[in-house]
Amino acid sequence: MSDIIPVLPRQPAPDLEVVLSGSGGAYFSLADEAPDTFTLVVFYRGYHCPICRAQLKELEANLPEFEKRGVSVVAVSSDTEERALKTKTEWNLPRLRLGYGLELSMARRWGLYVSAGRGLTSIGVEEPALFSEPGLFLIRSDHSVYFASVQSMPFARPHFSDILGAIDIVVAKSYPARGEVTAVV
Hints:
- It is a single chain.
- By secondary structure, the protein is an alpha+beta fold.
- It has a single domain, classed as Glutaredoxin.
- It is built from 4 helices and 9 strands, in the order E-E-E-H-E-H-E-H-E-E-E-E-H.
- Strands 2-1-5-4-3-8-9 form a 7-stranded mixed sheet, covered by helices on one side.
């Protein structure tokens, strides 16, 4: 039986607290976030993933646009402190809050898939023994889930320009969170 629990729109988001890379021990705590509109939580696979690198560089470039829309942003992985620091410095992510040390049990609470490492990646970096696959969540300022995208593979992730456009529509039209029905249909 799977222990992946779906994260449901309009329900409280699971807890999330991680150390931030390069912050001198500061933490990101979802419970402490108070954005004007949303908190964008991007779960990425880790330092070993070249697709994550491209995704986080795109996210870094779009941070000013998210800030204009009242969205706080964090990217999180199950990487170690050392790997997270390499991610932050080598990938040139000076502004992005980068959380590390995500426990895989917490990844499961967020509905993320977990994969086993398979050796060196295409960029020559060893995959961890176990790590979480990508996910992207918009969390309302009341800490309820608004949007969730969870993937079992590293490919075909949502583009941040699409997320920004969606936020504009959602805010302008007070568009409700969808996917909330849990009854058997």
